[in-house]
Design brief:
The protein is 42% helix and 17% strand. The chain has 171 residues and is an alpha/beta fold. The chain is globular and about 45 Å long.
């Protein structure tokens, strides 16, 4: 299992959306979260997940803005988050912040790295313009290859970049 998380797998991350609106995949993931939790469980689990995200945001500072950490994990299924420690989420957020610092405008940026301390887990990060069904397509291919996802963070964040692809603003 990944260090700090109770379940092995990979993390898929899409942080460079051109729009701030939720896409069709967000609605799909929200529907899955709704199906997994009863009405009585939803409130406390979501509250606990929000507290975990807030703690991770605090730990990620000063190298990573707190609001980025919040946006990064805001749409993640609470049960997936609750299997992780705040320190590990903070480390993932710092790595994502650094990875997203530069991206050529209009071109995807992808990396796969082994998760520190976990022999059987990797992190898959994808930065791309927001496009429908990208996450569904990637998740379907991972599933087809027998790769399980333990934590999926799929924010859609508006990113402004200069001509060199350097992040100059986000929202």
């Amino acid at each position: 299992a990944p260090a700090g998380c109770a379940k092995a797998g990979c993390r898929l991350l899409d942080v460079a959306g051109e729009r701030s609106q939720a896409d069709a995949d967000g609605a799909h993931r929200k529907g899955r979260a709704d199906q997994q939790m009863s009405d009585q469980q939803r409130g406390p689990a979501e509250q606990e997940a929000q507290a975990l995200i807030a703690e991770a945001a605090s730990l990620a500072a000063p190298n990573c803005p707190a609001d980025f950490v919040t946006k990064l994990f805001a749409r993640t299924i609470p049960d997936d988050l609750l299997r992780c420690r705040a320190a590990n989420l903070a480390a993932l957020a710092r790595d994502a912040w650094d990875f997203a610092a530069v991206r050529r405008v209009g071109a995807p940026k992808i990396r796969i790295v082994d998760l520190a301390g976990a022999a059987d887990a990797s992190v898959l990060e994808i930065l791309n313009d927001d496009m429908p069904f990208l996450v569904d397509s990637v998740m379907a291919e991972l599933s087809r290859q027998g790769i399980e996802s333990g934590l999926l963070a799929h924010p859609v964040i508006t990113v402004e970049r200069n001509l060199n692809g350097e992040r100059i603003a986000y929202g």
